[in-house]
Protein: FRG domain-containing protein
Amino acid sequence: MINMAFSQEWISILNQVSEFTNNSKTNKVWFRGHNNSSYKLNSGLFRLNLGNNIKSYQEIEESAYNQFKISSQTLITKKSWDLLYIMQHHGVKTRLLDWTESFAISIYFALKNWQNDKQNACIWMLDPIRLNEKSVNRDKIVFPVDKFKYPDDFQKKNIQHSFAMAPNKNNPRIIAQKGFFTLQGNSLHSLENEFNGNLINENILKKITLHPAILPDANKFLQICGIDEFILFPDLQGLAEIINQKIELHQLTPPLVQTN
Structure:
């Protein structure tokens, strides 16, 4: 009997990814990993418990943007949307929800800090083109133009539904993580609950639950794909993280010897 490299459960997951991709509008699929399968597809801004009045969220949104813009002027000089991407990158609560076009990268984030003895993790898959056809009546990824200012012009539009957008690739982490965003609208619903939950019914959005039993397969898969902390965070912080991981796993190799 041949020993299979991966379990049937992991192969089933890969088949689900392949099937969703094949059925997508242009074979373009985005992924998002959660280390807790109960987490909703809400952006940081809409995870705040501010009730059901959209004005409360908009006031926080505008205040955070203006404070960041004023306080960062000596550090960065960016246009409105680029500044929003930088805010998201540094952890400010915004309307943006991170996605990646790499399944392997989404697996990395699903496994990161996963308390697999307490809960399942999950991967969300999104067809961004079909989402935009439904939410903004466009068959392409949105790339905001400079004349359409954030947050002023965006708030005037009163956009209700999330849409898929492409950021300027001017950040090493966005490039390394193959990053894209959905920008959450004013409906006060998480993405999976928008359009009365029909995004899932119409196969625009799909959730794959990850059970603890797949952890060895997932780690092996990441190793084969060459995904680690420093690949995704190509800076000194990422380098420090991967070195610490290797120290804990006793995987540090002997130092290279320099020769004259």
Summary: The longest strand covers residues 121-126. Residues 181 and 214 are 27 Å apart (CA to CA). Residues 228-260 form one domain.
